[in-house]
Write a structure and sequence with these properties.
The chain is an all-beta fold and 120 residues long. The protein is globular, with a radius of gyration of 14 Å. It has no helices and eleven strands. 0% of the residues lie in helices and 44% in strands. Strands 1-9-6-11-4 form a five-stranded antiparallel beta sheet, with no helix packed on it. It has a four-stranded antiparallel beta sheet with strand order 5-10-7-8, with no helix packed on it. A two-stranded antiparallel sheet has the order 2-3. It has a single domain, classed as Jelly Rolls.
Length: 120
């Protein structure tokens, strides 16, 4: 896998004066089937998270609240993604090193891991 396989995906956004709604339906909107979601919160300023690559797991990261940066490395090149909208997510395939840093106050990253590959 290379950084070319990583990408920002725009999710559906329903705008409403009472508050916006974004949703993900199975593997319809992202290139993996959701099996588990976990999220980080109360991350102290200056902290870094992740700092690893996964052999067989794909991930999709969303900034549910606040913002943070994801630095990806494929063994050759680095790329930094700023996640700061709850309707954008970052798809990361297996074998890509990831670090999460630059958390804003109140940032809440949601992470959706999936083992295996997606077939449309």
């Amino acid at each position: 896998m290379t950084l070319k396989d990583c990408r920002i995906i725009e999710l559906p956004k329903i705008q409403d004066p009472r508050g916006n709604l974004t949703f993900i339906e199975g593997s319809k909107h992202i290139p993996l089937e959701m099996r588990r979601v976990f999220y980080l919160y109360d991350v102290p300023g200056g902290s870094e998270r992740a700092g690893h690559a996964l052999k067989t797991c794909e991930q999709f990261l969303i900034a549910m609240s606040g913002s943070f940066d994801v630095v990806l490395y494929d063994g050759k090149d680095n790329q930094r993604f700023d996640l700061n909208r709850s309707y954008y997510g970052l798809y990361i395939p297996p074998l890509i090193w990831r670090e999460i840093d630059n958390f804003s106050s109140g940032a809440r990253p949601a992470i959706n891991p999936r083992v295996g590959r997606w077939t449309p």
